[in-house]
Amino acid sequence: MNKTIVLLDLEETLIESFDDALILEHNILKIAGHLYTVPGVGAFTDPESLLDNLRFGWMSWAIWDWSDKEQELVGDLVTFIDREHKWNLKERMSTLCDWSMTTWAEKLMQFDSLLVHRDEINQLFSKEDMLFKLRDMFNDFDRVILFDDTVEHNLTISAPDVTIVFQNIKEL
Ligand SMILES: [Mg+2]
Q1: What is the crossing angle of helices 68-85 and 25-35, to 10°?
Q2: How far is the CA of 140 from the centre of ligand 1 (A)?
C-alpha cells in the first residue's frame, strides 16, 4: 500500500538556523519535486488525496525540548509551508516523530535498549545509525524518507518491514 513517513531536518534543510529562521524555499521545492516521484505519494499536495498514506515528522538535532521559541518557529514554518505549498503538513504531522532530542533518547531505550543522554546522541550516532536502530518503530509504514543536509545521498536500508531512504538536500 506504500504508506510513507517523511522525516524532515530543520537547520540547513528547511530553515537556515534557529538563530536565523530564514526559510529555505528552494529546498522546500526540491523536497516537493522529489515526493512527486515517490510511488503512492505523487499527489501529496491534494489535501484529500492519499492522506492516510503519507505522514511527516521532524528529525532535527536542534530541537532539545520544544521550548517556546522552538515551538513558535516550527509553528510558523508549518503555517508557511501549508499556505504557500499546500503540503497539508499540519494534519499530516505524525505524533510518532514530533520529537525533541529528549524523546529520541527515550525511543533509543525503548526500541534498542540503549541508555544514551540526549546531549550525546548527535556525538555517538549519525542519523543513518539512528533510523536503523529505530527501524521497528516504523512498522506501520512501508517507507521512511529522511531529507537532511548531512546524510549519505540515496543510501537505502532495507529492513524486513520497512525501507529507509536518505536524501541529501544539497544533492537533490
Ligand atoms: Mg541540518
Answers
A1: 60
A2: 26
* Residue position matching grid coordinates 524555499: 25
Distance in Å, CA 126 to ligand 1 centroid: 12
Ligand 1 geometric centre to CA of 28 (Å): 14
Listed by start position, the domains of the chain span: 4-98+139-171
Q: What is the CATH number that goes with domain 4-98+139-171?
A: 3.40.50
**C-beta separation of 3 from 140 below 8 A:** yes
**138, 165 Cβ separation under 8 angstroms:** no
Overall average pLDDT of the 22-36 stretch:
95
Please return the burial class of 144, using the count of CB atoms within 10 Å of its CB with bins 0-12, 13-18 and 19+: buried
Q: Whole-prediction pTM value?
A: 0.93
Task: Pick the range with the lowest mean pLDDT from 23-32, 112-121, 146-155.
Answer: 112-121
Whole-number Å distance, alpha carbon 71 to ligand 1 midpoint, is 17
- 48: CA distance to ligand 1 center in Å? 31
Helices (H), the chain: 25-35, 68-85, 89-92, 101-112, 121-124, 127-133
Ligand 1 centroid vs 38 CA: distance in angstroms? 23
Alpha carbon of 60 to ligand 1 centroid (Å): 7
